[in-house]
Amino acid sequence: MNARVARWAVVFGAACMLAPAHAQAPTQARTEATTQATTQAQQSAPPQPAQCPAGLPAATRCLTGQDSAGAFYWIAIPAAWNQVLVMHAHGGPELGEPRAQRSADDLTRWGITVKAGYAWAGSTFRQGGVEVRAAAEDTERLRQIFEAQIAKPKLTLLHGQSWGAGVAAKGAEMYAASVNGRSRYDGVLLTSGVLGGGTRSYDFRLDLRVVYQALCNNHPLPSEPPYPLWQGLPRGSQLSRTDLAQRVNACTGLNLPASQRSADQQRKLSTLLTVIRIPERSLQGHLNWGTWHFADVVFKRLNGGNPWGNTGAGYVGSDDDTALNRSVARYRADPEAVARLAADADLTGAVKVPVLTAHAVHDPVAFVELENAFLQTMQRAGNTKNLLQVFTDEAEHSYWSDPEYPALLSALQAWVESGNRPSAQSISDACKRFAAVYAGGCHFDVNYQAQPLNTRVVPRLP
């Protein structure tokens, strides 16, 4: 048994012993989650008419509200509705209390969905932070509100973006059972997905923290109390994003023109980008995530336990890799914390409906290799017949070209209705037809295949 397999065997065994009851009895958990979502949907006040955000088609009907669990939401129904509902699970996640504006912003960004004739509904989720199951429950609750108080669509597609792709995939697992002979979600679209699960997708951000600290020694500063970097921040820290950006700039000159950086700053910046294999423009965002989101996971979800380790990770790409590997901090993950994070945020592949994933090859935020991790998950579950993965030759994460999304949605809809799995080529061809209506062009790379995640992220030992 190799080290990677051994590690996950240990994690799986710990998860069986330590995870909540829903991880031990998925059928019972799905039933309980559905019952809770139904009750809360019935208790929610009816959605209220609202002026649509700018950019939506004329005569679009918009509604908004707050459900009984506290999540805000927006709904949009085009005048020429095709009777297909797209439930949207947003990325992020944001920290702090939910904001109604978040859902309005999501509707604005994904207005192409409404322009293409689909109804759209998106929740803010009832809480901020990295909790996948709760977000999936919030999405299901909104679906039930739509059906009970607006209309019953002929089909419901579940769209997850970025971190929300993990939410959507988890929701498709949680609500896999049909109701009255009909699936809650007829098909799933996952774009720019963080699909490696919580226990694998963020390993590289721990790598970033330890390599950054070895090079810069200012997060934390020598004058500040030390703490294990997997915590993100110590409890009660007052560090702001502005503070951290200033520290990063002082060390690497990140916010300076290259011509104004010192030789030492440029060396450290180049080392970070080469070793962690991220582009310059995403360095600050990844470091922020490995700071405040790590703290959210550790202290709000795992009672202070450590779900990430870097034992045995060998960092390469610096001027002196031997010295670098001697200087980085080393941590071993706590099996109980790993199991609890896995129960919430890892995926099983138990999805019985068509799943279409799309990812930009040069995504600067969610590595394209995460798609290979999801492929392996679906393979282990025996559900690869339900999966099609396509790729675009783009370098963006949050949004691509307008014609690409209706091409994806229409392909997924046709797959659901006909039972015939599309191909990357057929989706690319469909995109060209949509490009006659919507600006932006088509960028599908029909021959691309994602490589294993450990070709991009440094493997680690148990």
Task: Tell me about this structure.
The chain is an alpha/beta fold. The protein contains 16 helices and 9 strands.
Short overview:
The chain has 462 residues and is of the alpha/beta class.
Based on the model shown, name its key terms.
single chain, disordered N terminus, alpha/beta, 462 residues, 11% strand, 43% helix, Rossmann fold
Q: What's the assembly state of these chains? A: single chain
Kindly report the spatial arrangement of strands forming the biggest sheet.
1-2-3-5-4-6-7-8-9
CATH fold name of the largest domain: Rossmann fold
What is the number of beta strands?
Answer: 9
CATH class of the largest domain: Alpha Beta
- Uncertain spans, ≥5 residues at pLDDT below 50? 1-26
User: CATH architecture of the largest domain, please?
Assistant: 3-Layer(aba) Sandwich
Query: Which H/E pattern describes the elements?
Result: HHHEEEEHHEHEHEHHHHHHEHEHH
Distance from N terminus to C terminus (CA atoms, Å) equals 12 Å
